[in-house]
Amino acid sequence: MDVKTLFASQQYAALKPATEPDPRAEIAQSFAKITEDFAQALSATETTAMGSMYGDADPHALVEALSQSQLAVETAVTVRNRVVEAYQEILRMPV
């Protein structure tokens, strides 16, 4: 193997990670979309509940909106609990 070829392959390997997308940016965008969807679900439920109080909304739509918001909140709580458990597990690891 030629020294120039070896040097070129080492430089290519060193530069390859710089051309790949940053996975942290994708995670941040995904988390932002999830939180936006969660806020929209709660907002839609509030709008439906207000419409139901004024007599503008169908009772079935209110029940459906409430069950969707309950599912969204339960999912958020479950994710939060998993994150807290993972953090506590990391704290228990010996150094």
From TrEMBL:
<keyword id="KW-0969">Cilium</keyword>
<keyword id="KW-0282">Flagellum</keyword>
<keyword id="KW-0975">Bacterial flagellum</keyword>
<protein>
    <submittedName>
        <fullName>Flagellar hook-basal body complex protein FliE</fullName>
    </submittedName>
</protein>
<dbReference type="GO" id="GO:0071973">
    <property type="term" value="P:bacterial-type flagellum-dependent cell motility"/>
</dbReference>
<dbReference type="GO" id="GO:0005198">
    <property type="term" value="F:structural molecule activity"/>
</dbReference>
<keyword id="KW-0966">Cell projection</keyword>
<dbReference type="GO" id="GO:0009425">
    <property type="term" value="C:bacterial-type flagellum basal body"/>
</dbReference>
<dbReference type="Pfam" id="PF02049">
    <property type="entry name" value="FliE"/>
</dbReference>
<comment type="similarity">
    <text>Belongs to the FliE family.</text>
</comment>
<dbReference type="InterPro" id="IPR001624">
    <property type="entry name" value="FliE"/>
</dbReference>
<dbReference type="GO" id="GO:0003774">
    <property type="term" value="F:cytoskeletal motor activity"/>
</dbReference>
